[in-house]
Design goal:
- By secondary structure, this protein is of the alpha/beta class.
- It has two domains: 205 residues, Rossmann fold; 151 residues, P-loop containing nucleotide triphosphate hydrolases (Rossmann fold).
- A seven-stranded parallel beta sheet has the order 3-4-2-5-6-1-7, with helices on both faces. Strands 10-11-9-12-13-8-14 form a seven-stranded parallel beta sheet, with helices on both faces.
- β3, α5 and β4 form a beta-alpha-beta unit.
- α2 packs parallel to α3, α3 packs across α4 and α6 crosses α8.
- The longest helix has 14 residues.
- The two termini are 38 Å apart.
């Protein structure tokens, strides 16, 4: 199958040909025909599967054939970085069509607010917005949603993790009930099902199985106690070849602590989180993309909101709570058929989570011996009755030590 199968307008097809899009990905192949039939969708598809184009292409095609142009589509995204990426995709895909978009996101100074407000007043076909900033814009009366035809929620699970549920419901109260709603999420926890039940009408469900980590990723783990992690990181930076690194931690608070700790240890790293000013975040990302900043520290939100080529190593300071987030994290390296290294620091509390990751990816991750002088390895302790694994099951027992992968 090629994109010609969808019978897009010739101007849209010209854009696809110009950027080299020829064959649809599995999520595009499944989602585009359903969207063309004006059906609601709940789709489980991770970053890197082509889901953005899966919803943008049929929407842009429909806008092209709209007689009276108004604000047609609202896309909600969890982060400024993802909103900008989606806006850039609209610009590329719709280059020959005349379809316009505006990104609306927080951060920056008053001039950014004024620029976004003026752009909204002038009008656009598509708004890509973070929920918090859109709520603020709604209070100004600048946005007219009366003609809206499409509502799209991208990375819906991340928006709920970041506490945007009430904002989403409030935004939906401002838009027409008669609309097409498309919900895309990398994971499908119960809270996403609850949200879908409230905002979707007889949706078609599409599930693209989570991809296994790329073959080019060398996956390794150190069983290490927390007090030795910074010392171990210094060892890894000296012992392994690398050019740029993303280091992931599971909470914003830990990202902040690591940023300060690495600064004291004279490590070339900076923390990237929502509490720093937008201008600084933009500069950090620019420096990282240009290889001026060697190590970027962030949470799992960064694993889905960054598109940087040439990342040679991913380091997991801790084991993510959701095993699918591990796949997202290490997927930042070895992109475009390159190679990379993914190293995970595993303490005694994280071992059950680590086993869940191995079950998900269907392989054993090689355990690396600690260098001399780094203290004893972290060892699994007994699980309490209150502990649960990633499937919510209670149980006791310890994590069996596995042999390294051959």
């Amino acid at each position: 199958m090629t994109f010609h199968h969808f019978q897009f307008d010739s101007k849209l097809q010209d854009g696809l040909d110009a950027i080299g899009f020829s064959k649809p990905t599995p999520v595009q192949e499944q989602a585009i025909p359903v969207i063309q039939q004006h059906r609601d969708i709940i789709a489980c598809a991770q970053t890197g599967t082509g889901k953005t184009a899966a919803y943008l292409l049929p929407v842009i095609n429909r806008i092209i054939h709209t007689d009276h142009r108004h604000l047609n589509t609202l896309v909600l995204a969890p982060t400024r970085e993802l909103a900008v990426q989606i806006d850039q995709q609209v610009e590329g895909l719709a280059y020959f069509t005349g379809v316009s978009s505006i990104p609306v996101y927080g951060g920056g100074d008053g001039s950014a607010w004024d620029a976004q407000r003026k752009a909204l007043e002038q009008g656009a076909d598509i708004i890509i917005a973070t929920p918090g900033r859109l709520i603020a814009m709604l209070a100004t009366g600048t946005i007219d949603f009366s003609h809206l035809k499409h509502l799209i929620l991208d990375e819906a699970d991340r928006m709920l993790d970041m506490g945007f549920y009430e904002d989403i419901i409030r935004i939906i109260s401002h838009i027409p009930a008669e609309r097409q709603t498309l919900l895309f999420s990398a994971t499908m926890p119960p809270k996403i099902r609850t949200l879908a039940g409230k905002i979707l009408k007889d949706p078609v469900e599409i599930t693209i199985a989570i991809s296994k980590p790329a073959e080019g990723i060398v996956q390794q783990a150190f069983l290490v106690r927390d007090e030795y992690k910074i010392k171990l990181l210094s060892h890894v930076l000296k012992a392994y070849p690398w050019s740029s690194i993303i280091l992931f931690a599971s909470t914003k608070e830990m990202v902040k602590k690591l940023g300060k700790a690495f600064e004291r240890a004279n490590l070339p790293a900076r923390a990237f989180h929502s509490d720093i000013e937008q201008e600084e975040r933009t500069e950090l990302m620019r420096a990282f993309k240009n290889k001026q900043l060697k190590i970027l520290i962030g949470t799992d939100v960064l694993s889905r909101g960054i598109d940087v080529e040439g990342i040679s190593m991913v380091i997991n300071w801790d084991v993510p709570p959701d095993p699918e987030d591990y796949v997202h994290r290490i997927g930042r390296t070895a992109r475009a058929e390159s190679t990379g290294t993914a190293i995970t620091f595993v303490n005694s509390r994280d071992m059950r989570r680590f086993q869940s990751i191995e079950e998900l990816i269907g392989r054993t991750i090689e355990r690396m011996p600690l260098p001399e002088g780094f203290g004893p390895e972290a060892v699994p302790g007994p699980r309490s009755e209150g502990d649960r694994d990633h499937k919510g099951r209670r149980g006791k027992g310890s994590f069996p030590r596995r042999k390294p992968a051959r």
